[in-house]
Amino acid sequence: MSFRDHPARFDKRFLAGLFGRPATDLQDFAFTPVGTGQVGDSYRLSLDWAASESENKNESKNGAPLPVSLVAKCPAADTVSRDTARNMHLYEIETQFYAHFGDSCGARVPHVFLSDYDAASGDGLLLFEDMAPAVQIAQMDGCSVPQLEAVLDEAARLHKSHWNDARLVEHMFLTYGHQEERRAFIGGLMPAVYPEWRARYEGRLDRDILDMGAALVARFADYIAPRDGPMVLTHGDMRLDNMLFSDADGRTILLDWQTAAAGPPMGDIAYCISTSLAQADARAAMEKQLVAAYHAKLGDSVGAYDFDAAWADYRRASFAGFIMAVISAMIVERTERGDEMFAVMAERSGWQALHLDALALI
After folding, report:
1. Phi and psi dihedrals of 46, rounded to 5?
2. pTM of the full predicted structure?
3. pLDDT tens digit string along 89-98?
4. Pairwise CA distance, residues 307 & 163, whole Å
5. What fold characterizes domain 7-129?
6. Domain boundaries defined on the chain
7. Phi-psi group of 335: left, alpha or beta (phi > 0 → left; psi -120 to 50 → alpha; rest → beta)
8. Any idea which architecture 145-361 has in CATH?
């Protein structure tokens, strides 16, 4: 059977079988687009189960109630975005993250009913629980400080779950970003695309940010060179578009694990703080306090990694959001919303790097 890369390829037998039920128990299903993904398309599936008087007919094979909806995350329909995801192993990384770490990463993530990866095509499919009524906060709007603190709580849970765990590197999909060939690819890509990216955003972004980007590109080989420090399970794209906020228990739900990796923790933190707060002065006033609170929540897991070391790594990692904005803008499908989203990310992270004098640490 061909790989199911879209809900149009699903059938009742396939969906009912996920829950140990025959096709006859599922009367019908429908789907609608949901989310704003750049390299993956998501759909909410509504499931119409047949009514039954049987005591266990409305339960799945593990005894849980049959869901009336779920979310399917599929490969992007846009060929540019899909090829980018395949070439960068993004579908493989996300499906394998859920398969191996969904229950042990410490952070709150959706329960996955199916994590399927097709090595022949490089495509992946996820079917996971519908987290409604949890809501997404628009990336460009930014969030409040209490909401950001809730995100950083999840980041601390994630990072301490596998702090300096040498077994992480046994998972090939977590090391793609650190292999020499990948480092060489990114090291060549950033200088290659930056002139075009700068021309695209000239007039939209402050010249100080654009000049800082040029200075970073000139030192990029030094910036991405391997360094000593703690290694953890990282998210890699910890921004508002990739999370949901719930009033049920106050915990934030982390989504979009296509850039999960074994790497240093402070990239997640600097990236998250810079891209989440809309006002640069608010970020500058709060960030040391926010980083200190995150570091404290790591507890004894950090060993000799004290706050001063974490703060230095945070400053150096403040380029993370800027780099993501530059590269992503140039390798995925171009849209009006995407252009502005990447501009906002680069702007917020650019001011962060300038305020923290991050260039001085390369």
Report:
1. -100, 130
2. 0.92
3. 999 999 999 9
4. 16
5. Phosphorylase Kinase; domain 1 (3.30.200)
6. 7-129, 145-361
7. beta
8. Alpha-Beta Complex (3.90)
